[in-house]
Amino acid sequence: LCAESEMVGFEIVELDPLDGEALILLGEIGLDASRPDEARTVLEEALTLAREQEQPQTVASALCVAARLPGGDVEAARAALASYTDASTLPTKHFQLWRATRDPADLRAAKRALDDLLAKNPPEHHHAMRTNVPVHREILAAWREELGDDDEAADGGSPTESPTRVGEPDV
Q: Residue 27: phi, psi to the nearest 5?
């Protein structure tokens, strides 16, 4: 799957060299494949393009992935994420920060964003969103493993059963 995603990313960049999101995907793949130098190159290119094109969402995405690089700037990613408005990908961005920091607060933020996203969708779609979206599965698995919480919502309950609903204090 990683090789296929990488091939698609390169094809997109070949067709549209100004596609910052494709470059970010290639950066993620490079990081996951333990190729940080390659990842740094494409993420810097994505960041430059996003800034030139005045795309703050893409800037935030690039910074969140780049935070995972050795010497990555977590604070810059957090600052960019503070104004991030795409609720559909917000859980992913917080999870990327958690992967960079392993700070429980970042994992809590990813879980809260996922819970909030679930709350905005019909209940009959929740199970599929939890189980069919790879990053959502990863967030829930990390939540259970790292915080020792067997969230009932992960197994098909409603998001209101979750201990991390928006507006509730962090534990």
A: -65, -45
